[in-house]
Design goal:
The complex is a heterodimer of chains A (109) and B (809). Chain A has 109 residues and is mostly beta strands. Chain A is built from one helix and ten strands, in the order E-E-E-E-E-E-E-E-E-E-H. Chain A has one helix at 105-108, and strands at residues 3-8, 16-22, 25-33, 36-41, 55-57, 60-62, 69-71, 86-87, 89-92, 95-99. The model of chain A has no long low-confidence stretch (mean pLDDT 90). Chain B has 809 residues and is an alpha/beta fold. Chain B folds into six domains: 3-110 and 241-301, FAD/NAD(P)-binding domain, CATH 3.50.50; 124-237, FAD/NAD(P)-binding domain, CATH 3.50.50.60; 323-393, Enolase-like, domain 1 (2-Layer Sandwich); 407-535, BFD-like [2Fe-2S]-binding domain (Arc Repressor Mutant, subunit A, Orthogonal Bundle), CATH 1.10.10.1100; 546-623, Sulfite Reductase Hemoprotein,Domain 2 (Sulfite Reductase Hemoprotein, domain 2); 631-784, Sulfite Reductase Hemoprotein, domain 1 (2-Layer Sandwich). Chain B has a five-stranded parallel β-sheet, covered by helices on one side. Residues 398-403 of chain B have low confidence and may be disordered. The chains are: A mainly beta (109), B alpha/beta (809). At the A-B interface, strand 1, strand 2, strand 3 and strand 5 of A face strand 23, helix 18, strand 39 and helix 27 of B. Strand 2 of chain A pairs parallel with strand 39 of chain B.
Chain lengths: 109, 809
């Protein structure tokens, strides 16, 4: 893994999300707690809704367009046969780091 | 031949080290113990019970003079070590040198003093040693103290002084207490019980300056301008390893003195233990690992194999009556699951954090009896698969009981008001039930409870079930969502009755089963809190649907629409030019005239929003709240200004209403209209509030609809003056704000409570004035342009990072 420093954790509001543009598409960083961040695709598989704009609750997010709910641990949609891709992310000294290998199309191929 | 061992610092870890050495091999070392404090080893952890008067200093001394004499320890107390000559292996003290074969650094930690202006005034202290404790013990009845820091140490200091009768205020930078050891819910319970001890807590408060008089502290000034007068100011914001001596001596240091698993520093003859060390990147503040380090250091000194391993830790607050426990990791890590248990009646909160079928963290408040059992599961990594269902009930429980959904009602005191309309308290209803009222109708007949607006019906029924048990068959009511067992009406009523003023308070007191609600209940609770407690509760954007969070309407492709306000539907050439310019500048694909008499710019990119708002703001245009559960538009006709038939200034009234109501949050959207004559060109009779002007005055109708349902307004009242029409409208909107279920439009709410009930309230002069005052109070906060605020921080709307650019470089 090669960790890329993205931003300070406080750039993401608690129980909120922000978007990072990558070569594999837009990835949303969801801050579910003071010291907890998940990374997953920003795009809802249903109608393409921007998940970072959804309401973050517990370790889940609800799509703002049609209320599909995703578990951020697995990316699995609750009660639907669909999932979003999740990405390795970690917090170090107040900074959010994303795995560069996972979000780079060339190395993923 | 005995080796010469010198120990610098007589703290808790070095006390344990000496004990282990003399127990294992009393003849191995000649020990010399330096301590800058003029005394030997005592239990620093127990300073808090000394402060509160539960223990004396003598009781917390761990090693007395007799111990040192018996074991031939040479004590150099009250003497500072000035430097270490590592080449000659000599420690230089103020009163002379001491040679060593082995040296142990136990220099501990120093309290962090925030360099606020005035931090060097007399009366500003840390909480670290016996001297500090004695200063605090002098603070009794009538003395005022401010403690900066709502962590473990700060709260113990505050509680200790409060127990002695001092007036204590704790100032804490974060939003909840002990944020490193507790989650929000436990922090809320802790705050509540400390407030019960008379301690004032100021959270999210930033200290700006310490004010003094004649060189002595006088008050703490916060950056919001509040002055907190005090006779003593205690800074308890944390500690950092005391590495000065180690660094001067040339040892490898980082945050602390670097040690390996054997507690040996970069010099093979020098070991280090306690709060001054850094081991594998970690520094230590709790006692358990320090004792472990002391044991490992003793084994290393004696030439035995031993290695220090970091373990998870548990925390307990030593404040009588505040029963809390936390251990392990409950704030970090992916792939975790929570089990939450709340018992509002007993003020109990428990949360277990599970990862890979193992318990990794626990936070408990109110009932911590099982703490050490849970801690054991964490430490041992016991698989919990088999007992998962009942795990949270602790080791004694292996049956399976249902959480009692009635506990919130059962916990209310008997003087708690259940029915707000008729002022009926819980005790009165219980008496009626005891006297033979066994169904809702009978309770209503005897007490009038739930006989008016009916929103407390659910609570009355629950109370009947609590009192009558199985004799009462509860009608099934729809709870808000899967997170709780209460209906919207119950939640609203309980937020008022129990004076719940924060989300954690609602989750805890009303027995929520999730950590922080879901997309269904959280927006509702957020609205109820801000509607009932406008000054105490701040609107939480993260509990709002995207449109209200971003102040624009999301479209199916993820772009947004922007609708500036046109007061009463009136605009100017300049405003139209600004809108046209913005449409050009931001490549707006669709410009549409709305049914609410204004202009919609559709297809604006999310990241452009703050900029288009700034441009529109410059032309005097503000948010039209086309996205909010709040006032949308006031549609008007031109009235007496131009129309041949107009009877009153309908446009002017519309503008006045819009200016009074804009910015307010309501349970659902609210649309108004004012027509200048009964020809009703503004279509006022299908609005939430529609006013039709006539020669004799104003006909105010309410509860119209022209959406999924189409409904004509019902006449609330006819009034003679414009001022009255405005007053009645505001009172109606406020009554709706105070009572309706979230996402019920006024017509749905009216169908539940009845127009008569609403009219009685609004026609009561006192009640009408109360409603208007309450609305004005709320508007003192919310009557402002959110666009102006958000335009000032465009970064929040931009991408957090763009890795595609970096890849291209």
């Amino acid at each position: 893994m090669s960790w890329i420093d993205i931003a300070a954790i406080d750039d993401i509001p608690e129980r909120g999300a922000r978007v990072v543009k990558t070569s594999v598409g837009c990835i949303a960083l969801f801050r579910t707690g003071a010291e907890e961040v998940f990374a997953a695709s920003n795009t809802c598989p249903h109608k393409g809704g921007p998940l970072a704009d959804g309401i973050v609750h517990g370790q889940k997010v609800t799509c703002p367009l049609h209320n599909w709910v995703f578990d951020l641990n697995t990316g699995q949609a609750v009660g639907e046969d669909a999932r979003i891709t999740t990405y390795p992310v970690r917090i170090e000294a107040g900074r959010v780091l994303l795995d560069g290998m996972a979000v780079d199309k060339r190395s993923a191929a | 031949m005995k080796q010469k061992l010198v120990i610098i610092g007589a703290g808790m870890s070095s006390g344990r080290l000496i004990e282990t050495l003399v127990d294992t091999d009393p003849d191995a070392f000649d020990i010399t113990l330096f301590n800058a404090e003029p005394r030997g080893n005592y239990n620093r952890l127990m300073l808090s019970p000394v402060l509160s008067g539960e223990k004396t200093y003598e009781e917390i001394v761990t090693h007395d003079d007799a111990f040192y004499t018996t074991h031939d320890v040479t004590c150099r107390f009250g003497e500072k070590v000035t430097n270490i000559d590592r080449a000659a292996k000599v420690v230089i003290g103020e009163n002379g040198p001491v040679p060593y074969d082995k040296l142990v650094m136990g220099t501990g930690s120093v309290p962090i003093i925030i360099p606020l202006p005035g931090h060097d005034l007399e009366g500003v202290i840390a909480y670290r040693d016996l001297e500090d404790t004695q200063r605090m013990m002098a603070m009794g009845q009538g003395r005022r103290v401010v403690v900066i820091g709502g962590g473990l140490l700060g709260l113990e200091a505050a509680a200790g002084m409060a127990a002695r009768g001092a007036e204590v205020t704790v100032v804490h930078l974060m939003g909840h207490l002990m944020e490193r050891q507790l989650d929000e819910a436990a922090g809320y319970l802790l705050k509540k019980s400390l407030e019960g001890k008379g301690i004032t807590l100021r959270l999210s408060a930033n200290s700006k300056e310490i004010l003094g008089e004649n060189g002595h502290v006088k008050a703490l000034l916060l950056d919001d301008g509040t002055e907190l007068p005090c006779d003593l100011l205690v800074m308890a914001v944390g500690i950092r390893p005391n590495i000065a001596l180690g660094k001067e001596s040339g040892l490898a240091v980082g945050r602390g003195i670097h040690v390996d698993d054997q507690m040996v520093t970069s010099d093979p003859n020098i070991l280090s233990i306690g709060e001054c060390v850094e081991h594998r990147g970690a520094v230590f503040g709790l006692v358990a690992p320090l004792y472990e380090q002391a044991k490992v250091a003793a084994q290393t000194l004696l030439g035995h194999e031993a290695a220090f391993v970091q373990k998870s830790l548990s925390t307990k607050l030593k404040v009588t009556g505040c029963d809390l426990f936390s251990a392990g990791d409950f704030a970090e890590g992916e792939g975790r699951e929570d089990i939450v248990f709340r018992d509002p009646a007993r003020g109990v909160y428990k949360r277990l954090v599970i990862e890979d079928d193992r318990l990794i963290g626990v936070v408990m408040y109110g009932d911590t009896g099982d703490g050490s059992w849970f801690f054991g599961l964490i430490r041992d990594g016991t698989p919990i698969d088999d007992m998962r269902e009942t795990l949270i009930f602790g080791p004694a429980f292996q049956g399976g009981t249902q959480l009692d959904p009635l506990s919130a009602v059962a916990a209310l005191p008997s003087e708690a008001e259940i029915c707000g309309c008729n002022g009926v308290c819980k005790g009165t209803i219980e008496e009626a039930i005891a006297a033979g009222a066994t169904d809702l109708g009978a309770v209503r007949a005897r007490t009038k409870a739930s006989a008016s607006c009916g929103t407390c019906t659910g609570l009355v029924e629950q109370l009947m079930q609590v009192t009558l048990g199985d004799d009462f068959q509860m009608p099934t009511a729809q709870p808000v969502c899967g997170c709780c067992d209460l209906t919207h009406e119950d939640v609203r009523r309980l937020i008022k009755t129990k004076e719940l003023k924060s989300q954690p308070a609602v989750w805890q007191e009303l027995g929520w089963r999730t950590v922080n609600g879901c997309h269904v209940c959280r927006p509702a609770v957020n609205f109820y809190l801000l509607a009932d407690w406008p000054l105490d509760y701040a609107d939480d954007p993260q509990s709002r649907f995207v449109n209200e969070r971003k102040h624009a309407n999301i479209q199916k492709d993820g772009t947004f629409s922007v609708v500036p306000r046109m007061w009463g539907g009136i605009t100017t050439a300049d405003e139209l030019r600004a809108i046209a310019d913005a449409a050009d500048k931001y490549n707006v694909p669709t410009v549409k005239v709305t049914g609410g008499q204004r202009i919609d710019l559709l297809g604006v990119k999310g990241e452009d929003l703050p900029f288009i708002w700034a441009d529109l703001n410059r032309a005097g245009l503000v948010s039209g709240h086309a996205y909010s559960k709040g006032l949308r538009t006031v549609k008007t006709c031109v009235g007496t200004d131009h129309c041949r038939f107009g009877t009153q200034d309908s446009t002017g009234l519309g503008i006045k209403l819009e200016q009074a109501l804009w910015g307010s949050w309501t349970p659902h959207k609210v649309k108004l209209a004012v027509s200048g004559c009964p020809r009703n060109c503004a279509e006022a009779t299908c609005k939430d509030v529609g006013i039709v002007c006539v020669d004799s005055g104003y006909q105010v109708g309410v509860g119209g609809a022209a959406g999924m349902d189409v409904k004509e307004t019902e006449r609330l009242v006819d009034v003679a003056t414009e001022g009255e029409a405005i007053a009645v409208t505001i009172a109606f909107v406020q009554l709706y704000r105070e009572n309706a279920k979230y996402l019920d439009r006024p017509y749905k709410w009216l169908a539940k409570v009845g127009l008569d009930w609403v009219r009685d309230r609004i026609m009561d002069a006192n009640e009408r004035q109360r409603l208007i005052d309450a609305f004005e109070l709320s508007q003192s906060i919310y009557r402002k342009d959110p666009w102006a605020e958000h335009a000032a921080r465009p970064r929040a709307y931009a991408h957090l990072a763009d890795l595609t650019l970096e890849a291209a470089e």
